[in-house]
Inverse folding.
């Protein structure tokens, strides 16, 4: 029976769902891989920030060291160019500090702020003590101011070195994290690809197995229809052709226990073929039973046709001749019945038509045996008829109308 209108898991729908499942796995894996790769890219970008922090902190530290060298040489030589050098190194250190501040790293800012007071004391020692002492040519005061400046400048220099060390450590962490996330993204992509392949293979195997089972089920039904039902129907037709009306065709193809949803309309068509074959067997049995009821277990159609033909051409014609002879006064015309009634083989039923024919034949024979009034019963009657002018028939051998029998030609009175 067709299930048009009802949702069924046909092979096309299963393939769509399977393809969707595999695609979903790849989409999820792709999304995770992209996210991990983006995070790794961010980590790689952060290493650039730490590279700049190391660079700017180095500029600041170089400026601080330049200040230390310039102030010492100025005190030692009194050469004004070292004062100018000191001022230039201060500007370089300040530029480096400004660039570090623009990076917006809280840890770097905190380290720098911790050395701000010492840096200010250093600047004050140089500007308010060392330079004026050198201007007065007071070497003792200049050396004392240099010592005080040197103690103070080492504090910001240590902070700057600490910033470099911090930036280098953070850069190393960022590189490690980027490499780890890159490796994780690669791993996820590989695992997703393998999972997708395994899932696709598993789905393909399951579908192939299911399809094989479904196809085999339909093949078995068609094979049963061909090898058993059609063969059985042919045997019934052959038996009927051989006048055997007792052969009952029994279909053996049974409906599948489970509905085959894989092939949709194809499965419906297979089922309709099975139902049509079963219906043909049922129709054949009904037709055969009707024939058996009318013609008997072993069809009497051939015997019935032959006897009916014989009766029509022989018995009825001879009876008509006998009646014609009577009307002419010939009461010696005999009708001999030799047509045998129809009998079933080995006592089998001869059907309604066979019984009807036998009844008709029996009544015809009864009609033959009835003697009309005036018909001679013996030699005395014949002589009596002759004296009264009643014509006695000729010898049956000399009269072509006489001697006929029901169903055959014969000589007799």
């Amino acid at each position: 029976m067709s299930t048009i209108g009802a949702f069924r898991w046909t092979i096309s729908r299963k393939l769509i769902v399977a393809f969707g499942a595999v695609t979903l796995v790849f989409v999820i894996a792709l999304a995770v891989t992209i996210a991990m790769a983006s995070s790794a890219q961010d980590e790689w970008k952060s290493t650039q920030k730490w590279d700049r922090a190391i660079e700017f902190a180095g500029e600041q530290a170089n400026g601080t060291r330049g200040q230390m060298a310039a102030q010492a040489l100025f005190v030692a030589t009194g050469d004004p160019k070292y004062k100018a050098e000191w001022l230039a190194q201060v500007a370089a250190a300040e530029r480096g500090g400004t660039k570090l501040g623009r990076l917006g790293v809280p840890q770097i800012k905190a380290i720098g702020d911790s050395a701000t007071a010492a840096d200010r004391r250093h600047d004050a020692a140089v500007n308010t003590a060392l330079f004026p002492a050198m201007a007065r040519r007071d070497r003792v005061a200049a050396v004392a101011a240099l010592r005080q400046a040197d103690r103070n400048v080492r504090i910001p220099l240590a902070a700057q070195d600490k910033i470099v060390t911090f930036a280098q450590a953070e850069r190393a962490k960022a590189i490690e994290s980027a490499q780890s996330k890159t490796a994780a993204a690669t791993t996820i992509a590989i695992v997703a690809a393998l999972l997708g392949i395994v899932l696709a293979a598993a789905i393909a195997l399951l579908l192939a197995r299911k399809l094989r089972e479904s196809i085999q089920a339909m093949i078995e039904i068609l094979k049963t229809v061909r090898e058993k039902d059609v063969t059985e129907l042919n045997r019934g037709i052959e038996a009927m052709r051989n006048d055997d009306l007792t052969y009952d065709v029994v279909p053996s193809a049974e409906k599948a226990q489970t509905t085959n949803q894989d092939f949709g309309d194809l499965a419906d068509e297979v089922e309709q073929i099975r139902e049509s074959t079963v219906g043909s067997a049922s129709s054949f049995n009904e037709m055969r039973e009707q024939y058996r009821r009318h013609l008997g277990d072993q069809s009497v159609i051939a015997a019935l046709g032959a006897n009916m033909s014989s009766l029509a051409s022989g018995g009825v014609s001879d009876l008509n001749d006998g009646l014609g002879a009577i009307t002419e006064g010939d009461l010696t015309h005999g009708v001999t019945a030799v047509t045998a009634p129809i009998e079933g083989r080995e006592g089998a039923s001869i059907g309604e038509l066979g019984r009807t024919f036998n009844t008709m034949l029996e009544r015809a024979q009864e009609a033959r045996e009835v003697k009309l009034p005036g018909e001679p019963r013996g030699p005395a009657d014949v002589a009596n008829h002759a004296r009264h002018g009643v014509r006695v028939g000729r010898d049956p051998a000399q009269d072509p109308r006489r001697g006929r029998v029901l169903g055959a030609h014969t000589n007799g009175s």
